[in-house]
Amino acid sequence: MTxxxxxxxxxxxxxxxxxxxxxxxxxxxxxxxxxxxxxxxREEGKRFVLLSKDxxxxxxxxxxxxxxxxxxxxGLHHLSFQVxxxxxxxxxxxxxxxxxxxxxxxRIVAHGxxxxxxxxxxxxxxxxxxxxxxxxxxxxYTASAGGAPSCGFF
Length: 154
Hints:
Elements: E1 15-19, H1 22-33, E2 36-41, E3 48-53, E4 56-63, E5 79-82, H2 86-99, E6 109-110, E7 118-123, E8 129-134
Parallel strand pairs: 1-4, 5-8
Antiparallel strand pairs: 2-3, 3-4, 6-7, 7-8
């Protein structure tokens, strides 16, 4: 018989992403999110960057890929970052447009019709799908795909 045991104090820690060009990805994530470099290795074959916000590790980048992200295989669907206000989402949207990032939708979208939460969906330089959203303030925006959640990218 299997016993269901809860893990106390559970929360998401940092996220690690494989990238094809560590310098390009480091610049992108620092420019878009304002991350600081906590540590990095430039040793050939073992290149990585640890990125932090307010001295807390958030994201690790590993130069271990040779191809772009493939949404057709099992694994990461998208990586989401929550901000406090829809104004912060709007600021991020302008920054992404300024640097020419690929937006999945051409605007801020609500998570669902009538939802107060919503955000923007875009790709990093390797095609990894990302989201920046606010839990409130998106009521004036429409959803992207009828009854399905916008973050499903249907």
